Amino acid sequence: MYYQLQNGKVVYLSIEQYLELTDLDIQYLMSIDYGEYVLDPFAGSAVEKSNQKEYDFEFISTDDEEVNDIISDDEPFDDIIDISLS
Fold this sequence. Notes:
The protein is an alpha+beta fold. 23% of the residues lie in helices and 7% in strands.
């Protein structure tokens, strides 16, 4: 995660490092002028990452056996709904 120091510089810390961070650690990082200035507020965010997946909608299965096994002449929910009680 990115953590912005009080001098405006940004450092990258893991969650464990952030949880163990003390005021003295922050003061030390600022004293050695560690980090860098980030001009883009969305730097490193999920907004910039392109995680697009491509789907092939042109593909049509020619294997009709799977479909025919599912479809039967019986009512689709005979085993769940007992229509003899009506």
